[in-house]
Here is the input.
Amino acid sequence: MSGKPDNESTRLDDAARAGWLYYVAGNTQDEIARKLGVSRQSAQRMVSLAVSRKLIKVRLDHPIAQCMELSHRLKNRFDLQQCEVVPSDPESSSSTLGIAQAGAGEMERHLKSIHPRIIALGTGRALRACVEQLTPMDCPQHRIVSLVGNMASDGSASAYDVIIRMADAVNAPHYPMPLPVIATTTEERSILQNQKPVRSILELARQADATFVGIGQMGDDVPLLDDGFITREELRAYKKAGAAGEIVGWVYDRNGVIIDGLTNDRVASAPIRPDPQTPVFGIAAGANKVDAILSALRGRLINSLITNELTAKRLLSS
Here is the structure.
């Protein structure tokens, strides 16, 4: 029994070496087998293990012409600072495939700066997928700040809070928002946001050099409802008010205007105020998110976009 951990470690070391030889060094499986002194079948299994255990992460660097054209059209139509469109797999049910890798790549470009930067993060499934793709780095010069509270109304932690995951991955100081996403009353929100540490976090968020947010749809599968932040009755009220999407808890209409009243009166998140001089990346894809993305673009709630080609085509045809 005592030999198992060492055997497992050796197995993963071999898999990582095989994965590096295949994806980074460009070796064929026959070449890997020869270099590692194993059969071709063993080399194939080691490469597969490297991928399944996330020992190696693959990103596409070649600019696909159609994706670049879609990106160019989106930038022109919506006056975007930046736009990246990644290839789509029409048979995949994943809403983060491709955009997670692209989002991580964009985050890393900012993190590699030698100059201190403030990076603000929203929350949600797409951002968590991006952070899981980050390459470990050492970035003590940067500060990572949350735009949104990390608690549900019952005090439980949000399953999709990403700031701690990112800070651990890049070894940077982080500033979580120690608040519920939506306060119980407007008075409670005011009291919470007037605490000195919270005021400092909100000011850091305002000064962010780059911001990354997910975009939530407002259909029956709305993340705010699934995650327990609003009730079904509140969802119905939002639909009646013309809700189209949500960013860090703020619900907006088809023109990208934050809806007055309802839970927006109690949202404890940082305000959405994109600065024309700094990028605010919306990271989202999927047929169910087209209306939410389009409305955010109309209202200039985001000024940069990372999405996939199927979503880009629908945005441009809407």
Summary: The chain has a mean pLDDT of 89. Residues 39 and 141 are 46 Å apart (CA to CA). The longest strand covers residues 143-151. DSSP finds 13 helices and ten strands in the chain.
